[in-house]
TrEMBL record:
InterPro entries (UniProt xref): FAD/NAD-bd_sf, FAD/NAD-binding_dom, NDH-2
Ranges of biased composition (kind: Polar residues): 140-150
Keywords: FAD, Flavoprotein, NAD, Oxidoreductase
Disordered as annotated region, ranges: 131-157
Record-level GO cellular component terms: mitochondrion
Gene Ontology molecular-function annotations: NADH dehydrogenase activity
UniProt protein name: FAD protein
Domain FAD/NAD(P)-binding: residue ranges: 47-348
Length: 493
């Protein structure tokens, strides 16, 4: 008892003497408290609201000067996921907690609200947030769900209450969702790899397939289908997952299920003529040859037509929870799991909520050219990239506005534009007008660090952002990989 008492006293003493502990105890829990804490040590702090806790949002929240800015993160997840390692966590090479970092860091003065941004009033600098910490509805999928699996917007959640949050600067870094191209059954039945919850579902399903296949009542035909793993998408994510899955089956599960490994097949499907198109052809061919030797099948120029539960033809009532993958080339094939990684789809918040500017923000927008009529009399919307649908930004990541076609002055030869000086977009949702950067963690991280450095200096008249390519690396299994760096540098083996 004395030991417990002394420990509690010592903990209270440390809390009183440790400013970080005091900082944590003063965490704001209401908008009123948040407003009251805007005063910094030296002067009033601007409030920077960051939408998203991915690579861009998380890095920016850590890099901003907390003496100059009050940093508030709004995101449906209270953590940052180190996405390049998700394939490793899905097969058990790494534990899930090693890829996660809390947004509410103990040594950072970052405030956080769990929720989704619903709408923005740019004129009044007001953000409307739907609370995200809601009780989930019963799901038809016992394995759980993710924001990337069901309806990309707000799956399996009750409608939350909406509150408003004032900002001085707003950074949109909500990221993208997995692109399914409206393929029937994919969003309902495929497994994605965008978040740690997806990795958990994949690991559970892999083990489930092996356990059902190990039952004495399971036929060889059903074993072949249960242990047939399809990966749709031949980019780095799909290729790395195929390699990690191969390692798991042939190095670890082989010891537990020695008689089942002969039934395992791993197949990569891609609509493109070759996999890993971002790599030089020599490196891509090296990867293809390694996979061929390992028995990993690669089917390029394949068109996926659908994914549904059950086996082809429903020949057996006991299907082990299998799925049927339908392709234009092979027809229907029974599989145990389909991991989908085929590119990015713009976030619904970007597609819908930011589609219209209710009132032209005259106080914070700069016109590219004089107009014959007041800009407030015109209808404006956020300018989009014609290919990706992302928000068009300048080289300082400031979002641009452009008027609707029917409200643009007829006498102007070039459509007018306006740059919002307090609204920024980073990562996958942003797009430069002329040069498109790859949607990678490396790009998002560099963008966030550059913007933080620029805002900390308080000078937006500096030279614009310049991406420095640090190279791209892809794991191929059996401790082998390929790397392509800047200026043609190549490594393999």
């Amino acid at each position: 008892m004395n030991i417990i008492t002394n420990t509690l006293k010592r903990s209270r003493h440390i809390a009183r003497s440790n400013p970080l502990s005091n900082q944590a105890s003063r965490r704001c829990i209401s908008i009123k408290d948040l407003d009251a804490s805007k005063g910094g040590k030296k002067a009033y702090r601007e409030r920077v609201v960051i939408l998203g806790s991915g690579w861009a949002g998380f890095v920016l929240s850590r890099e901003l000067d907390k003496n100059k800015f009050q940093t508030v993160v709004v995101s449906p997840t209270s953590y940052f996921a180190f996405t390049p390692l998700l394939a490793s966590t899905a097969v058990g090479t790494l534990e899930f907690r090693t890829t996660l970092e809390s947004v509410r860091g103990r040594s950072t003065s970052v405030e956080f609200f769990q929720g989704w941004a619903d709408d923005v009033n740019f004129n009044k600098k007001k953000l409307f947030v739907e609370e995200g910490a809601q009780r989930r509805k019963p799901s038809s999928r016992s394995s759980g769900d993710s924001t990337n699996v069901e309806d990309p917007s707000k799956p399996s959640l009750e409608k939350g209450q909406v509150f408003d949050l004032q900002y001085d600067k707003l950074v949109v870094a909500v990221g993208c969702y997995s692109q399914t191209f409206s393929t029937p059954g994919v969003r309902e039945n495929a497994f994605f790899l965008k978040d740690v919850t997806d990795a958990i579902r994949i690991r559970r399903r892999i083990l489930e397939c092996f356990e059902i296949a190990a039952l004495p009542t399971t036929s060889d035909k059903l074993r072949d289908q249960l242990l047939s793993f399809a990966i749709v998408g031949g980019g780095p994510t799909g290729v790395e997952f195929a390699a990690e899955l191969f390692d798991l089956c042939h190095q670890d599960l082989k010891k537990l299920y020695p008689s089942l490994i002969q039934h395992v097949t791993i197949t990569i499907y891609d609509v493109a003529p070759k996999i890993l198109p971002m790599f030089d052809s020599k490196l891509a061919d090296y990867a293809v040859e390694l996979f061929r030797r390992d028995g990993i099948k690669i089917k390029t120029e394949y068109h996926i037509q659908g994914l549904r539960p059950g086996l082809p033809g429903f020949s057996s009532s006991r299907d082990g929870g299998c799925y049927t993958l339908k392709t234009k080339q092979d027809g229907e094939t029974g599989i145990g799991m389909c991991v989908w990684s085929t590119g990015l789809m713009m976030n619904p918040f970007i597609q819908h909520a930011l589609d219209d500017v209710h009132t032209y923000p005259a106080a914070s927008a700069t016109l590219s050219q004089p107009l014959s009529s007041p800009p407030e009399s015109m209808k404006w919307y956020l300018k989009r990239h014609p290919k990706t649908g992302g928000l068009v930004v300048d080289d300082h990541f400031r979002v641009k506005l452009t008027p609707r076609n029917n409200t643009s002055p007829k006498e102007s030869s070039k459509p007018p534009e306006a740059t919002m000086n307090d609204i920024f977009a980073l990562g996958d949702v942003s797009a430069f007008e002329k040069a498109q950067l790859p949607a990678t963690a490396q790009v998002a991280s560099q963008e966030a660090k550059w913007l933080a450095k620029t805002l900390n200096k308080g000078n937006m008249n500096t030279e614009g952002f310049d991406f420095k390519n640090m190279g791209v690396l892809t794991y191929l299994g059996n401790m082998r990989a390929i790397m392509q760096g800047e200026h043609g540098t190549e490594l393999k083996g």
